[in-house]
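Pasting as-is:
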Amino acid sequence: MIPLRDNNPSRTVPFVTFTLIGINLAVFIYQLLLGERLGGFYAAFGIVPRQFFGALPSHFFDPGLYLPFLTSPFLHGGFLHLGGNMLCLWIFGDNVEDRLGHFRYLFFYLGAGLAAGAAHTVVNAGSPLPSIGASGAIAGVMGAYVVWFPRARVLTLIPIFIFIQFVEIPAVFYLGFWFLMQFFSGALSLGDAQTYQQGGVAWWAHIGGFAFGLAAGFLVRVRERRRPFSWR
């Protein structure tokens, strides 16, 4: 299922979402220019779980040890990887930014990326492969979106063999199904030696990011309900 757009217009211009998309595009263009140095770039700025835990005891207070948790969400492994992530950020990011405000949204997005990276690192502690991509941070955006806009509808492309169907699906069903797919895929990947050695989808980054977004979404909702009325 490929999301194309939602029917939930934003009230404000999503400056931060546009900026995040621009940064991701700029970094990807830079990656294309690296040639044979790209692998080293991934290793330096992607999250390498085994390397992180190996260095943790002696470099606990070294900020450089934690830098990849901020940089890895801006790296991508190819055009489809980048395009799919930026499409989802474009569809869901504007409304979450509208609800949080620009500055809070930026910190929320970075926090979701950190949560996603932490979840992936803990579950895949022995992996020697760098984890890259914005999907964990964007999963956080999707988690908050489903809390705040469950009745919004997502126009979705569904390929059925040689046929293509366009269907509007309520966000709660689309994003709920998406999360269940991530969870079951993540559960099946536990202990899979092939994932450690050959890589694949960072399912637990998606799960961690989405859980962060859900928690933040419910927390904001609770705080808004407890806010005292202002009489004028």
